[in-house]
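Sequence in, structure out. Go.
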Amino acid sequence: MTWHIIGILVFVVIYNIWRYYHEDHSDDYGPNIEPEPMNNEVNGSCMEETISTRQLALRTIENIGSEPKYDEAGRIQFEYQGVIFLMEAANDCMFVNLIWPWCHSFSKFDIDEFARVRQVVNEVNLRDTLSVVYTISDSDDVALHIKKHFLLVPEIQEVEGYLKLILNSFFRTSRMLELEIEKCRMQECNG
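Output:
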């Protein structure tokens, strides 16, 4: 048993010595300094205009055929396929929040509907990439909102298609909510 332990220790020592002498000893964590070109060429990436996340969001919304506006809270508001969306985009953050407010609502006094919706919201949040939340408003309504937090940077290829794909996932989630709520109603009628 002790010979096995000694053999393992010898192997580890020999392996580390071999690694030390055969691997590159450059500083992988140091700055990566590239030599400047000898001629007077300017690197193309330095000439590119840097665009903030908020500017990119506004431009992308316009490019998909919507007209961005600002709401009273400073969020970007736009309409896509007849639905009003809100986008929270800050210049110093590469992520944005996209919200479909009031995608479904009902009276807070409808206890059966509240129980159904709570069950469905929990199931959808476990299975989907979007988040569904509900709030109780001053008008005695419970409102469901769908929200997605995602990366929005200029390096994304086809950023307009990317945004459309995310927006279409909101419609899919809304349909799933409606179907699951209706399934719960049907089960209650049959049960």
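Check: The helical segments are 2-22, 44-47, 53-63, 111-127, 159-190. Confidence is low (pLDDT under 50) at residues 26-33, 40-47.
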